[in-house]
Amino acid sequence: MKRNHYTPEQEQFREAFRRFLEREVVPHSPRFREQGMIDRDVYRKAGEGGFLCYWVEEAYGGLGLADFRYDQLMYEEVTRSHETGLWMGALNRNSPPYIAKYGTEAQKHLFLPKLVSGEMICAIAMTEPDAGSDIAGFKTHARPRGDGSWVLNGQKTYISYGLTADLFVVAAKTDPSNPRQLGLFLVEKGMPGFRPGRKLEKLGFLSQDTSELFFEDVELSPQHVIGDPARGFDYMRGGLAEERITTAAQSLPNAQEAIRLAVDFTTGRKAFGQRIADFQNTKFKLAELRADVDCAQAFLDHCVDLFNAGELDPATAAACKLKCTEVQARAVDESLQLHGSAGYMQEYPICRLYADARISRIFAGTSEVMKIVIAKDMLG
Ligand SMILES: Cc1cc2nc3c(=O)[nH]c(=O)nc-3n(C[C@H](O)[C@H](O)[C@H](O)COP(=O)(O)OP(=O)(O)OC[C@H]3O[C@@H](n4cnc5c(N)ncnc54)[C@H](O)[C@@H]3O)c2cc1C
User: Fold this and answer.
1) How far apart are CA 73 and CA 13, in angstroms?
2) Where is the Acyl-CoA dehydrogenase/oxidase C-terminal domain (predicted)?
3) Which of 81, 84, 364, 379 is the most exposed place for a label (fewest CB within 10 A)?
4) Residue 11 Cα to ligand 1 middle (Å)
5) Is 32 within 8 Å of 39 (Cβ atoms)?
6) Is residue 207 a contact partner of residue 85, using CB atoms and an 8 Å limit?
7) Which protein residue's CA is at the shortest distance from atom 24 of ligand 1?
8) Quick one: which of 214, 237, 235, 238 has its CA closest to 225?
9) Which residues lie with the beta carbon below 6 Å from any ligand 1 atom?
10) Do 143 and 117 touch, CB atoms closer than 8 A?
11) Average pLDDT over residues 9-18
């Protein structure tokens, strides 16, 4: 489908990012997967290239390009490179906006330039061993000491970049009598009482680290509180809408690429004297997938425009995530099927696309939670 979505400047940015991936990431991809994380140096080079938190205002070291399409095209290029460990959505969108939107001037001046340069990586820590979808079930808590400082205790899990990150936006309860009252706190690597746990072994995203985090009497000064410590829930509602459009925008290129791989494979392989692509089943499957992806793409591009205009509401973001990730799931599954057993082998890229895709319907809110958000908007 022809898209009139990107400007010529954005296409130039795409070229620069593609060259960066070809130079700094793709040649080392097998090693990154082996070690379970990308070399730290790559993030600094990404910062030098202007690819990290480019949306941050110039006063805080960014390029001031408040346009999500730059992120969107980077997700497309990351998928195209087949090395998904450089998770631009997590680096640019999942946690830094909390500092930019709700942080103090001092916090913005201290942290944002380092997130832009890649000197620091920031992660978001919400999920806990006993509570993921059910935010009210969080046990991690921060107790005020009366002088503006806080003491943080608890545990988080499944945290993307848990080992690579230097800075964490941590959600914690701030009122024991109110399960819905949360605050957001900044925790820095090396603070006494804070330690990352083990690197978790995952199905996909093999070159991107995911880990547990432990907080034991971590003392947080007033400079480590983001905004109002009673309003974390509200902040997260807005932040999650951004995380959901991000997940949608990461999912659809994966679906597009799966279809492209299926076309390549089925036109090159024969069975029963004809190309796999010549079976009517193959044609119908690919045609259905193409129609699904084109519809989802039009919806996604529209949601990106709404986001850029500050008009993307949480329910529409949830609908976009639900639709794009479901289309992705069908696309990788059908495309793998068309590869036969080759699709199950790591040496074929469809195998990794399939494994990476499975998390899209779970993180940033599961598909079931997306339906709850959408239904609440419809029915109250
Ligand atoms: C690779 C990876 C990266 C991640 N990165 C991060 C990160 O950076 N930061 C972070 O905080 N978290 C992260 N997560 C965690 C992820 O966001 C959560 O695991 C996810 O939100 C689901 O929570 P849960 O696992 O506790 O599932 P649960 O909430 O226990 O849900 C289990 C099942 O029950 C269903 N369910 C729950 N409630 C309802 C309901 N009311 N109605 C119907 N069905 C329901 C769910 O849809 C799901 O199918 C990551 C996870 C992975 C695997």
Assistant:
1) 9
2) 231-378
3) 379
4) 35
5) yes
6) yes
7) 132
8) 235
9) 123-127, 132-134, 158-160, 202, 205, 210, 359, 362-363, 365-366, 368-369, 372
10) no
11) 98
Burial class (CB in 10 A: 0-12, 13-18, 19+), 273: exposed
All structural domains of the chain: 8-117 (1.10.540.10), 122-228 (2.40.110.10), 234-379 (1.20.140.10)
CA distance 374 to 362: 16
Place of tokens 């942080």: 103
> Which one is catalytic: 242, 243, 257, 334?
243
- CA distances for 62 relative to 101, 112, 167, 304, angstroms: 14, 8, 18, 21
> pLDDT tens digits for 111-135?
999 999 999 999 999 999 999 999 9
Residue pointed to by tokens 């009497």: 217
Q: Residue 147 burial by CB count (10 A; 0-12/13-18/19+): exposed, middle or buried?
A: exposed
From atom 12 of ligand 1, which residue's Cα is the shortest distance away? 127
Would you say 36 and 206 are in contact if contact means Cβ atoms under 8 Å apart?
yes
Per-residue tokens: 376? 């609440």
d(CA 181, CA 333): 41
Give the strand pairing for 182-188 and 270-271. Answer: unpaired
Mean pLDDT of the chain: 97
Instruction: Give CA–CA dist 175/144, Å, rounded.
Output: 9
Q: What residue type is 75 in one-letter code? A: Y
Confidence band of 75 (pLDDT split at 50, 70, 90)? very high
Residue 233, burial from CB neighbour count under 10 angstroms (0-12, 13-18, 19+): middle
Nearest one of 144, 56, 133 to 318, comparing CA atoms:
133
Question: For 29-72, what is each residue's pLDDT tens digit?
Answer: 999 999 999 999 999 999 999 999 999 999 999 999 999 999 99
The C-alpha R_g of the chain, in whole angstroms, comes to: 21
